[in-house]
Amino acid sequence: MAQTLIILFCSSLTISLLAISSASLDTLTPNQTIADGAKTTLISAAGAFEMGFFSPGSSSTRYLGIWYNNIANGTVAWVANRNTPLSDTSGVLRFDHNGGLILTDGGSNVVWSAKSSKASADLVVQLLDTGNLVIRPVNDSYPDNYLWQSFDYPGDCILPGMKFGLDLTNGVNRQLTSWKSLDDPSTGVYRSGVNGKGYPEIFLWNGSDTMFRLGPWNGIPFGGRSSLLQNAIFTYNFVLDEAGAYYMFQLLNASTAMRLMLNSEGDLQFLTWHDPKKGWEITVNLPTDKCDDFSVCGANGNCNMTKSKLGQEMCDCFEGFSPSNLENNEIKGLFSGCVRKRMLTCGNQDVFSRYPGLKLPDTQNSWIDPRLNLDECKAKCLNNCSCTAYANMDIKEGGSGCVLWFGDLFDTREFLASSQVLYLRTAGEGSGIISRSKGKAPVAIIVIVVLVVVTVVLSLFLLVVYKKKKLRRKADQSQREDFELPLFEFARIAKATNNFSNNNKLGEGGFGPVYMGILEEGQEIAVKRLSKTSKQGLDEFKNEVLCIAKLQHRNLVRLLGCSIEEGEMLLIYEFMPNKSLDFFIFDKVQSKLLDWPKRYNIINGVAKGLLYLHRDSRLRIIHRDLKAGNILLDHDMNPKVSDFGTAKSFWGSQSEASTTRVVGTFGYMSPEYALDGIFSFKSDVYSFGVLVLEIISGKRMKGFYQPDPNLNLLGQAWRLYNEQKFLELVDKAILQSCNYFEVCRAIQIALLCVQPYPEDRPEMELVNLMLSSAIEMPRPNQPGFFTAKKLQDSNSSSSLILDNSDVFYSSDI
Ligand SMILES: *[C@@H]1O[C@H](CO)[C@@H](O)[C@H](O)[C@H]1NC(C)=O
Ligand SMILES: *[C@@H]1O[C@H](CO)[C@@H](O)[C@H](O)[C@H]1NC(C)=O
Ligand SMILES: *[C@@H]1O[C@H](CO)[C@@H](O)[C@H](O)[C@H]1NC(C)=O
Ligand SMILES: *[C@@H]1O[C@H](CO)[C@@H](O)[C@H](O)[C@H]1NC(C)=O
Ligand SMILES: *[C@@H]1O[C@H](CO)[C@@H](O)[C@H](O)[C@H]1NC(C)=O
Ligand SMILES: *[C@@H]1O[C@H](CO)[C@@H](O)[C@H](O)[C@H]1NC(C)=O
Ligand SMILES: *[C@@H]1O[C@H](CO)[C@@H](O)[C@H](O)[C@H]1NC(C)=O
């Protein structure tokens, strides 16, 4: 360092004797200029950076800027007149004798200027090898004496040695702002910096919206990013004291280059120069994944990428919280945060749960005291009713300092590399700290959960029966949403099913065999038996009990009760004599039994069942595995939606912490669900669209058919719809009975349902309205998963939809 200073010192002495605007040197003295027309520039002493005029990308306008010179030649690090470009090469930068830097155009208009904090005749402008342009006293080159520096005014780039954040010594808040585009350095919408509220940390904003935050500094760099923990290129430190709150990066090897850049797409990137490749490498790109989206799980929700990768709902509630009631949540998937199950008592009954391995919550609403230890921190939190969590500030050497959070907690995520622990306050029965046992979900707990649910359900049932006798119930069945789940004796069911004999077996369901049975009083039932070997089944069993026990609709299969004796778990349903829809529509002979009026009735029935699930039931439910095989038919061929093993309701997310489950069936899965694991009510709408096309055409979504062997069912429907040849899509078996008007409408509705973007699909409410009335319908666009099969390679599967696997399991943990 001392050496460079000496070199700088010497070179500045030499220059002051030289004539102006000749060779490229690193300082400007009063009355010297840098002129675009004369192609003069400044080059830092060791040649790392150059300053002059340039045109970015394909633009022809001129800017004064600083760029890398030795390596990464031409990469721009700073622009002076980013919002006031020059239209020609008339620009001149002049250092006037009062310590002002002035950029003028051909007409001598000032386009940009900078002024030293002190007027003096003995000043120079110098471009340092750090990329910093400074105005300083001529014989004093110490950083404290810079009278102006470009490092105080970053553009889209933070260089090593630059303070990123709040510098209270001169009241500057150094933030990054993106370029509009590669060709346009003017201020774009993205901004990044250290927030001034609460415990400071780096934020990234899109306009006024928060996009991402890095997580508070905890002594071990970046509370939310493991990839930054160790690296061979740079070190960094966070300063939090009277001098300010800022980050600073330093290179480990001065012959490399590294910068933090906010690009015009809104990505915050650590870039390092890779010399062999002569290019910048992205060391870290932020935000990285879905859990990085700011507060993606809402208040008190925790985002878990492990779950997301397993195809499960990525959002979770903390213990003691349950998902809040969700309205208008389709836009953001389905999770909109969590609320406390029980209010804080504000006394000694409150307890703290221990959460290791988390990114700490948003610190904007936090309070810090570096002097307190963890016990004092806890006491402080208990003393204030609105304090909801606490943690150590610094976790080096056992931890010190105290952060307190007030009110709802936002934007936590699983962050396994973190050794920091968050202590979350909940209303507890006892006192002390509950240690959360992670990853274990013993069978006993599930059995207890089921037992508790059943007991609650049973007592409610008794209450309801009692009330009903007094009141005489109302006629409308579908309005009634009471809990009614009787317990059956195991022996009774064993008897009804001939001791689960193979002759009674109807098939294999999601989590075990299904048997047909006849109760003593003559009622026919279907019995699902949880196979004892199936680990997956337990969760589905629980899910199904909890989901369907509360549902009552004539288009949903009815659960009559359950049995959980002798280690057996059984679900007892009303028996559906006519099996499932796929048995009819895809079979040459059976398909004749379902004429158009019956099929149209089925379409309408399924639509009503789904509407009930989505909107009307007490719990709003996403089915997630709607398909022909899950539509059962009663005596009169009325449809009943069945199989709620994979359904998703709002209370459900947190009780599924360790489930590995069937998540759907290819062909029926919407693109965003199949590809990204994002599901919403609109994924059911997509499945419904596929189902309607199958019902009309008698063809399976999986597979390719004449006359267009290159197009799948969606592709054919889309083509025929465009050619107005609706009847060509209709199953030959029902051509006689079909109503042209109804068929046309149904095809158009189906195409609207299978739109690639969820927001383009109608809600089930609108689907029902379109089915039952003649309201005008929008024109569909090309469906999602529209596939033209490649002619040449008949063997290899050319796309996801061609996959023949029937059911898609998420992998075991
Ligand atoms: C710079 O120019 C001003 C006015 O043109 C003059 O007064 C001053 O002496 C000059 N300074 C130097 C160092 O040449
Ligand atoms: C950088 O670019 C300039 C002009 O484009 C060229 O003259 C110079 O040789 C380049 N330097 C390196 C190190 O590539
Ligand atoms: C430059 O240095 C000399 C001696 O070190 C000092 O007397 C003089 O005041 C300095 N000039 C300025 C402008 O600070
Ligand atoms: C930033 O906000 C705009 C407007 O809301 C939006 O269109 C854009 O997608 C956002 N950018 C990112 C990266 O999210
Ligand atoms: C610094 O980097 C250069 C070039 O990559 C390398 O040759 C040199 O050994 C490095 N120095 C240290 C101290 O790592
Ligand atoms: C609790 O903390 C909040 C936020 O710091 C503060 O406004 C409030 O006065 C505190 N209440 C008590 C009783 O200390
Ligand atoms: C994230 O999900 C995985 C898998 O379900 C689970 O084991 C882990 O405990 C979860 N992490 C948190 C912090 O909830």
Offer a quick outline of the entry.
The protein is an alpha+beta fold and 813 residues long. It folds into five domains: 6-288, Agglutinin, subunit A (Orthogonal Prism); 292-435, no CATH class; 441-476; 486-574, 2-Layer Sandwich (Phosphorylase Kinase, domain 1), CATH 3.30.200; 582-808, Transferase(Phosphotransferase), domain 1 (Orthogonal Bundle).
Mind telling me the CATH superfamily name of the largest domain? Bulb-type lectin domain
Q: What is the number of helices?
A: 13
Q: What form results from the Cα inertia axes?
A: elongated
- Briefly note the structural class of the backbone: alpha+beta
Per DSSP E runs of 2 or more residues, the count of β-strands stands at 47
Distance between the termini: 52 Å
Which percent band covers the strand fraction?
25-35%
The appropriate CATH architecture of the largest domain is Orthogonal Prism
Query: Main sheet?
Result: 6 strands, mixed
Mean pLDDT equals 78
The level of helicity is: 10-25%
Number of domains: 5
Low-confidence stretches: 1-23, 327-332, 430-483, 650-662, 789-813
Could you characterize what this model shows?
Its EC number is 2.7.11.1. Residues 1-19 form the signal peptide. Residues 346-428 form the Apple domain. It comes from Daucus carota subsp. sativus (Carrot). The protein has 5 domains: 6-288, Agglutinin, subunit A; 292-435, no CATH class; 441-476; 486-574, 2-Layer Sandwich (Phosphorylase Kinase, domain 1); 582-808, Transferase(Phosphotransferase) domain 1 (Transferase(Phosphotransferase), domain 1, Orthogonal Bundle). A hairpin with a 2-residue loop joins strand 37 and strand 38 (512-518). It has 13 helices and 47 strands. It starts with a helix and ends with a strand. Helix 4 packs parallel to helix 6 and helix 10 packs antiparallel against helix 12 (740-753). Helix content is 20%, strand content 26%. It is of the alpha+beta class. Bound molecules: 2-acetamido-2-deoxy-beta-D-glucopyranose (7 copies). Residues 122, 137, 139 line the site of one 2-acetamido-2-deoxy-beta-D-glucopyranose.
